[in-house]
């Protein structure tokens, strides 16, 4: 949601709240004045008639109508605001590089996009406007008292009114840390909870379920403690403000009524109306109860959403890198051209991770000056120690990880100048594991090529050595993913190859696609990959000597740098899995 829409919505909400609150205040004021006037008439033996009667009837109706209008419009505005914020967060998520993605980050995202957005919208729609209205309506009440009853009493009461917002402002400063800590604890719990669900099978196989449960209970207890602190603060403030202000304000009003009435400045009826009207000056106090739970929580959520969105490199791949121009329009498709298809010069890249204990972030550099030139149709294999940065290098080529220095050219176009989706369009990837979405096999394949026909899908499955799936009773409509047929690791990898075939990109990136499969599956996958790689530029990250030797060129990634090695040296030196 663009900021101006948010500002407009808040502005409209506030104006509406102020108007409706004024209508409600006038309604109640009319009732109290009518009650006072009636009191005078009763004293003189007259029945209740004329404007006091109209006031007594119309006042509550007006007040009730205004309050009702205030209530009925909220749900729609809440939904609009929540939808807009979630859309903004989703865009930020999609623009976030792989460098940030971790279980902690995912948990934070879920917590911010659900509970955080709800709290923010609730705060923005049901709190900000009514709070401003509540703060301004006493001025209206004072004016009514001044005009209708007595200016001296009005001025005395006016002196007490500014104390309430001042006190609320003071409490806000004192309790801001409490609500920020509560939101942080809630985010941490969401992250751990999600982490445990994602790693459920691992936890079970390691008999670590109970320990993980204890940790979750510990985090939940932490959240409970912070909520209790917030509520305790709320109760304390309610007690202090109610005791001091309600009593103080009513006492002042009663003293004024008695003193002004005794000296004949106001009638007994006006004195009664003055005391009744002074209760309307306590309207801001009613809001203090909401202040901590909705107000403080909403403000913390607002800061959190802003930090989340500001923190994500929304927009083009390299947005935020100083001095880099980003093309607004798609660059031309890569045709056969002279020069390298992939070129990296002096590329440095790494990861920032949220530090658990402090506010700061830790940066670890993984690639420390990569130079690489790959020509059209060339097949390059990259080997190296585990954790050396091979997957990171592929992520840089795909534009998922943005280098901190150096330049990257993909399919003949520098990423600095390409639009956001360019590298993803040019590369088909088969990674170590494949994610299958819940849905049909066809749905899972069309993610790569939405316009593909059923025949295209079947042909891709055949070419990926996965023809057996088309023979299932429901064929392409067979449900796979979490709630459907569970495919084996090898079959899932071949679904990824079928996706790559359908995508038909000029560059093929293979990140150890056979590392988690058995020998029979490996043969089948390598065979399908050989067909897929023909005529394409291929980078394959591997630990297998056979795959490495089959490449045109072999490079080793070690200590953040790429060095050429000969296939014979690789086999003999025995890099750990080079068998
Ligand atoms: N999203 C991430 N956030 C933080 N650090 C990361 C992230 N991804 C990878 N790393 C770290 O970067 C380093 C390089 O990881 P990378 O996966 O690129 O290595 P690799 O050579 O592909 O390893 P392997 O052969 O085991 O797959 C590792 O130390 C890893 O912990």
Automatic annotation (TrEMBL):
| Top-rank taxon | Bacteria
Q: Name one GO molecular function term.
A: ATP binding
Q: Tell me where in or outside the cell this protein is found.
A: Cell membrane
Chain ranges of the ABC transporter domain? 342-575
Pfam families cross-referenced by the UniProt entry: ABC_membrane, ABC_tran
> Can you cite an annotated GO cellular component?
plasma membrane
| Record-annotated ABC transmembrane type-1 domain positions | 17-297
Report the main location listed first in the record: membrane
For the keyword Nucleotide-binding, the answer is yes
> Which Gene3D superfamilies does the entry mention?
ABC transporter type 1, transmembrane domain, P-loop containing nucleotide triphosphate hydrolases
User: PANTHER family in the record, alphabetically?
Assistant: ATP-BINDING CASSETTE SUB-FAMILY B, COMPONENT LINKED WITH THE ASSEMBLY OF CYTOCHROME' TRANSPORT TRANSMEMBRANE ATP-BINDING PROTEIN ABC TRANSPORTER CYDD-RELATED
Q: What is this protein called?
A: ABC-type transport system involved in cytochrome bd biosynthesis fused ATPase/permease subunit
